[in-house]
Design a protein that fits this description.
mainly beta; seven-stranded antiparallel beta sheet; 23 strands; 2% helix; globular
Length: 267
């Protein structure tokens, strides 16, 4: 099974990890538009969240229009703007300020259809998590605020500080054990600042039949269908990852920490 997806430059839209291909529930793609360009598509059986990584756009979902969306020049310069597109919908994205725009197209299988809506930057919930060595800033884009408004999809961003770990202590969410763990697939899309830097994605499970590590560069992606999945940023470089999750047992994430790791940490 493929877990690591190195960046491949391509104009317009490209699938990075296609839902219902190697993942059951979630998918991710990247849309790049030059000045005044547009892109049209249909959601089909998927619900979609467009996360504007840079630039400004107008988005039309069926007969509903959202104008002049996007307030940041890159992911490190502010909170996100996002658009929710329900299943069985047509949508169009138009570049709106005469420069290039980059948008993550995140998807999840969906059974119910809701109304489209926008998440503005001031609606993104910011959380500061961790301790020295694994501090990070987590932005919830569509998490608890999505209850009753989306079917399965969960979306957010994590900003790792230079030289620190995130998604740590190691946790997983690949089994359905009520009150202890929720089954949810996840995808990470990465950015590195400055771009010459790197991070490291670690993936493993309890018996180490999964035991992988990847050097992460700007715009790489990782699929996480199973296992623990901590991330490290190289000293001197900021590391960002956009995450999308969905699973079979609701939208409440219940991660299970690596108990062997936690009980032996020198705190």
């Amino acid at each position: 099974m493929e877990y690591f997806y190195p960046y491949k430059e391509q104009k317009g839209y490209r699938d990075i990890i296609k839902a219902k291909d190697m993942m059951k529930y979630v998918g991710a793609g990247l849309l790049t538009l030059d000045a005044n360009e547009s892109y049209s598509s249909k959601s089909g059986e998927m619900e979609i969240v467009l996360v504007i990584l840079s630039g400004k756009v107008c988005v039309q979902v069926d007969d509903i229009s959202f104008e002049n969306l996007g307030e940041r020049k890159d992911v490190f310069s502010g909170r996100a703007t996002a658009v929710y597109i329900p299943k069985d919908s047509s949508y169009k994205v138009v570049e709106a300020q005469g420069s290039q725009v980059e948008i993550a197209v995140l998807s999840s299988t969906a059974e119910r259809k809701f109304m489209p809506f926008v998440i503005k930057p001031d609606e993104v919930m910011v959380n500061h998590r961790g301790m020295p060595g694994y501090r990070r800033e987590v932005h919830d884009i569509i998490v608890e605020n999505g209850e009753g408004k989306v079917d399965k999809i969960i979306v957010g961003e994590t900003f790792s500080y230079p030289g620190e770990w995130s998604s740590y202590p190691s946790h997983k969410h690949d089994k359905f054990e009520p009150s202890y763990e929720t089954e949810m697939e996840e995808i990470y899309l990465f950015k590195v600042k400055p771009r010459e830097g790197f991070g490291v994605q670690v993936m493993y499970n309890d018996d180490y039949s999964l035991r992988n590590a990847y050097i992460i560069k700007d715009n790489d992606a990782v699929a996480i269908p199973e296992g623990y999945h901590p991330v490290a940023a190289a000293p001197g470089f900021k590391l960002y990852y956009l995450w999308v999750m969905a699973g079979s047992s609701g939208r409440k994430l219940t991660p299970r920490d690596d108990s062997k790791l936690v009980s032996n940490m020198l705190l």
